[in-house]
Amino acid sequence: xxxxxxxxxxxxxxxxxxxxxxxxxxxxxxxxxxxxxxxxxxxxxxxxxxxxxxxxxxxxxxxxxxxxxxxxxxxxxxxxxxxxxxxxxxxxxxxxxxxxxxxxxxxxxxxxxxxxxxxxxxxxxxxxxxxxxxxxxxxxxxxxxxxxxxxxxxxxxxxxxxxxxxxxxxxxxxxxxxxxxxxxxxxxxxxxxxxxxxxxxxxxxxxxxxxxxxxxxxxxxxxxxxxxxxxxxxxxxxxxxxxxxxxxxxxxxxxxxxxxxxxxxxxxxxxxxxxxxxxxxxxxxxxxxxxxxxxxxxxxxxxxxxxxxxxxxxxxxxxxxxxxxxxxxxxxxxxxxxxxxxxxxxxxxxxxxxxxxxxxxxxxxxxxxxxxxxxxxxxxxxxxxxxxxxxxxxxxxxxxxxxxxxxxxxxxxxxxxxxxxxxxx
Amino acid sequence: xxxxxxxxxxxxxxxxxxxxxxxxxxxxxxxxxxxxxxxxxxxxxxxxxxxxxxxxxxxxxxxxxxxxxxxxxxxxxxxxxxxxxxxxxxxxxxxxxxxxxxxxxxxxxxxxxxxxxxxxxxxxxxxxxxxxxxxxxxxxxxxxxxxxxxxxxxxxxxxxxxxxxxxxxxxxxxxxxxxxxxxxxxxxxxxxxxxxxxxxxxxxxxxxxxxxxxxxxxxxxxxxxxxxxxxxxxxxxxxxxxxxxxxxxxxxxxxxxxxxxxxxxxxxxxxxxxxxxxxxxxxxxxxxxxxxxxxxxxxxxxxxxxxxxxxxxxxxxxxxxxxxxxxxxxxxxxxxxxxxxxxxxxxxxxxxxxxxxxxxxxxxxxxxxxxxxxxxxxxxxxxxxxxxxxxxxxxxxxxxxxxxxxxxxxxxxxxxxxxxxxxxx
Amino acid sequence: xxxxxxxxxxxxxxxxxxxxxxxxxxxxxxxxxxxxxxxxxxxxxxxxxxxxxxxxxxxxxxxxxxxxxxxxxxxxxxxxxxxxxxxxxxxxxxxxxxxxxxxxxxxxxxxxxxxxxxxxxxxxxxxxxxxxxxxxxxxxxxxxxxxxxxxxxxxxxxxxxxxxxxxxxxxxxxxxxxxxxxxxxxxxxxxxxxxxxxxxxxxxxxxxxxxxxxxxxxxxxxxxxxxxxxxxxxxxxxxxxxxxxxxxxxxxxxxxxxxxxxxxxxxxxxxxxxxxxxxxxxxxxxxxxxxxxxxxxxxxxxxxxxxxxxxxxxxxxxxxxxxxxxxxxxxxxxxxxxxxxxxxxxxxxxxxxxxxxxxxxxxxxxxxxxxxxxxxxxxxxxxxxxxxxxxxxxxxxxxxxxxxxxxxxxxxxxxxxxxxxxxxx
Amino acid sequence: xxxxxxxxxxxxxxxxxxxxxxxxxxxxxxxxxxxxxxxxxxxxxxxxxxxxxxxxxxxxxxxxxxxxxxxxxxxxxxxxxxxxxxxxxxxxxxxxxxxxxxxxxxxxxxxxxxxxxxxxxxxxxxxxxxxxxxxxxxxxxxxxxxxxxxxxxxxxxxxxxxxxxxxxxxxxxxxxxxxxxxxxxxxxxxxxxxxxxxxxxxxxxxxxxxxxxxxxxxxxxxxxxxxxxxxxxxxxxxxxxxxxxxxxxxxxxxxxxxxxxxxxxxxxxxxxxxxxxxxxxxxxxxxxxxxxxxxxxxxxxxxxxxxxxxxxxxxxxxxxxxxxxxxxxxxxxxxxxxxxxxxxxxxxxxxxxxxxxxxxxxxxxxxxxxxxxxxxxxxxxxxxxxxxxxxxxxxxxxxxxxxxxxxxxxxxxxxxxxxxxxxxx
Lengths: 425, 425, 425, 425
What we know:
homotetramer, alpha+beta, Butyryl-Coa Dehydrogenase, subunit A, domain 1, Butyryl-CoA Dehydrogenase, subunit A, domain 2, globular, disordered N terminus, Acyl-CoA_Oxase/DH_mid-dom (chains A, B, C, D), AcylCoA_DH/oxidase_NM_dom_sf (chains A, B, C, D), FAD (chains A, B, C, D), Acyl-CoA_Oxase/DH_mid-dom_sf (chains A, B, C, D), Acyl-CoA dehydrogenase family protein (chains A, B, C, D)
């Protein structure tokens, strides 16, 4: 009676022979992968140094410094010319058709270099917005917004999070859109709308409540709102640990009777959550992929610093528990890498929906562990670790915010935990 | 032969009757404690709100906004008039003569309100500098620098940390001072010199190497360097997670043949480490005291937020492991509070030197645990937690930097660990 | 609107002057404290070595080995003669009248030596049982059971936990007692009844359900059940990590129509939970007090071992992160010690009921942290750490079981977390 | 000058196309894998239940209970007849020639069922001993010892660890073997010699020091010592958290002038460490493989229990942070599984020597994380979790001891950390 009798199959590994366990990059992706790595080293990094140099002393913070956009455009054109462009789009006519797995390997590299993604038109939130438009946009919507986005001529934002509700529960969305004649009239407040301060940002995909009387998951819609629509009031930039990331910014926006044409709705009324499925799976995993690169960079900095500075007669890295911290960081990075690759492969093999629990697993796992690694890299640097002299502070604040962006860790653990329970029914 | 036979007395608690275990505030400190709490609520907090309002839109970042210093001075004068002034100085003729223990209770309150310490002339690094001057300064040094500091007329900096060496080992200091005629000629580089950007900052106590051929702990001296001395080059502000804290700043400074009179040396050649003992003990524990207040504030915000927002039909605070996080935070705060009180009492009863291991214990314990509590408070706030809308991001970056300021956690664990081993000899 | 505005007073420290913060042992307890320490060293430890020697090779495991009880009795009589007897009982005519605070200092010492408590008649579960009888027993109950317990002539058990329900929620108790004529007829199953295998164990205080139709907290009663009552079936010993702790044991017992006189009920029908309040507060904190001693012993062993063994040319304690582990253990032990002292003082000053949240705090804090310290002491010992050659394995399993005995950590965190929320109403 | 410039390639993933990243079981192993799973369910588990039943009440603890060996032999013969035998041996004529990767999938299953490995002659330490004999044994040694081992007729032990030195540094070995005439004369002490209490154990591979004047890594040799050789004194069983695991045992043995023929040396004088490389790589990873199965079993029990018991009106698994613990356990298990598979594949592709750092990574990662998962499963079970009613206590003590067996975690972190530093040279 008291004897332990577990009731579920414990065979979580599915079939060990399953394609899911083949985490090799495909042959066809190798040239692109090698090309991207070379391009980052030879083109992006020198451009980024120049870009940063141009920004020094620039005081009109909500514009780019003279010359910055120009050097960026040169690099973008070079990327486009070399075919290193829009390759994030999986399995579509308009992109390279990379599998999620192949993209994962590349995205790790993108994560190590702050301007790499944008240079190759693979930067969030444009990636998610383009993917959504490509999948569910009407021909007119595609012509007007997807085309210039794919060309890298404009940028975009995703207006989802609201300041006045707990957005960990997406059903809480309170911004409303009401159909008045042939126009949607939008009222409400959004914040942390990343990139909306960028003068090149022209369009926002905006999550709104259109059908308050429908079932809880069918009340929401997504609507295209041009940034220059009357009534779009940018209240100011939100800070990230004291930093406003001007001139791109994470804006706090009020929608005051903003009017957009009826046809700006995506897919149809009440289908907002459905569209989220399109963007969130890949978006979440892209973040994790890049985060592996960031953790790798942090470990690299930790070891380099620890070998080059001495205290008490020995290199820092040999003092106390530092070497064990290096080992633990390496172990966790390799474990995260394999988990992200597996989640990517699951999306390729099982589809986004079936792979959902794998995505939740890596989303809950990777930013938290990466934060710890970056934090330890900071510690070994002392004050330099939180300064502008290493990328560590930016890496930290960036990865820290991922622990609640696109669903907080806690919600992903809830999804994953419930999935586990579900195996017992 | 193999039986475990520990060799040390395990009686770490010393005498249970010892005065060390009486952690009550003294009777005479109560009126001051109550007064300070009232003053923070009634004077400092409204002033701080006004101060912040005045700063909005101010663009000349390395000056104070018009009116800011004026409202601050009004509050400072009120504090002075009410006798809430310089009470940090322990057991000295010039201050209230508070014990470290009594000060600890008050400092917890100071830690909750960013301008409270400065308003009552109890802000770092002035506190440490005043304490040093009061203990080891010559009558001329006191007249010239201590007096205006005690009056709150000027501010000061402490130039210790260097960018090019591992400063966890203080013997690594490389800035030199050479006696040429009747002047010290100083060359070298310092960074993260907090407050040195403040236009009111007039004097820096600077750690230099004067006697490179002496024994390792007798090569260093501390010298008074006016901020306007020729050759003091402010290279720029160091960032703290992307924030430069203008206009006070944490400056990067180059000393290029800076000349100061011979009599600007404190205490004498080769006595730099000796002076550090004066400032570091109290300084480290003051940080810990205020950090308790910050952790308390973070927990307060965590609970307030968790009770006021709902997701999935329940207040956030009741979801998943959140309530347990609240409990763990409370337990750790109370444990930290008792440890800090005990360390303060140890300084009162045993003296700074004998209490050194207690100070190392709390210095290694408090910032690390407080960071975790603040981090959890951030998580429950979502994006708002890292924004400018709560003090949490500032609390985090402030307390995070304490994990390496005044000796990194690792060095304090080394001190404490070695003390433990010492009990076995 | 979005500005953080915590609503609760954050003044958790109550009045800093409060007696609560005076953690000194009282003058009058000092001689006892010193006497107990001396007695443990001079009498208990040699006796324990002899006791262990006598047990070697003894094969009839559910009896004591010849001579074991005799040497124990000699030591008990010596303790009694010297007045080191029953001093656990707080504020009562029958004991030393030690405050909880004074007892805390002594209990730390008791925790370091396995037979110390029993030798001085201060061993669980007798302590709780005696306290309950002393507080709520009738004169007849006291004469029959309390007197021989206070004399150390018999031992007792506390039959609370049941195998078939989640006992973290005490309302789940399912063993029934029905009044039939002048007798209670008891049916049900209990397990982990510690000490019930000891041939000297004569009485069990048994938690039963008597009033299934009453309000949830008034359905339970506590009844005195002699171990030799017909129908008390000892099904066998429960193991603790593979160990059965014969001959004392943690027994699995079935009550099959066990009949005891009506007057064996304690206090009255439906007052079972009320009685629990009497025993649980002190019982929980006694465990924590002794656990400090166990953690102290583990650290002592960790350092002794680490200093005496070498690998890779250095003492183990100087390798990798070991010294930091020592430091962290010392910090946590001192923090736990202060928290336990404060909880004890809170019971003295505020009474058990008001001090309840302090007890929950230390109950959730101490066993978990002590387990980690013991575990690290094990690790530095290698295989010897889990062997019979050090007390570490016993310390670990003993302290590990405290994490769910008398309420699991999770329930204590719930109590403490809810108390924190309660401050916001 | 201060700009962060990491010096190492961060390309730890090697070639993403590399065969190393293909973690699929081979086609040819699938039937065996399925057969083993079926055999465990249909044959081993019923046999194990019978075996346990036969042991009840058996008092002569250092013998098997009547019938136990018989039912085990029946199952072993069935396994042999069905070809489920000795399949642990990789790439050898005498076994199935399973790759490490294929074996990993199977070993996870073996780890869930205590008698499964032995039934299929894949149990440690026989596996390591057979592998060593097969690789380096002379024809005579193979005939005498390998043959009966491969047939499952005898069992064996590995006498490595010594009680009087820190065995984390294998160079500390102090047992000596001196050549006297044609015999090795062995003196010294070993402990935790697992299986040496088993009456079927006939041979011990014993690590000794033969060449004290040679270079540090060439002083040791391995010698075959029959358990019945005169002078082999079994001093007694070592306990594991109070458990002696009779009748197999972990014996404490003294070698008193034990004489064995000169030809009993393996491979040659001074080659003891060389032989260790043969056994330790696979041995360490086999432990990790089985540990994945144990962690999986613990999670299974945690969820089953949490769903079946209620407190405070809800299933335990839905209370507090329990669901998050389930999620974290699942994430860590999947991460560990992928890391172990990758380490196994590395051994297949790169060879044991090049794969060494992968083995150290999983050896340092898996037991520690598995302990945490098992510990949490215990906690949700309450007292039942440490009882004999679930396998959890055995799982815990078994996996806990792995944290120092075959090199403590700390040494594996050192190996891995140094490897990381090595990439910077």
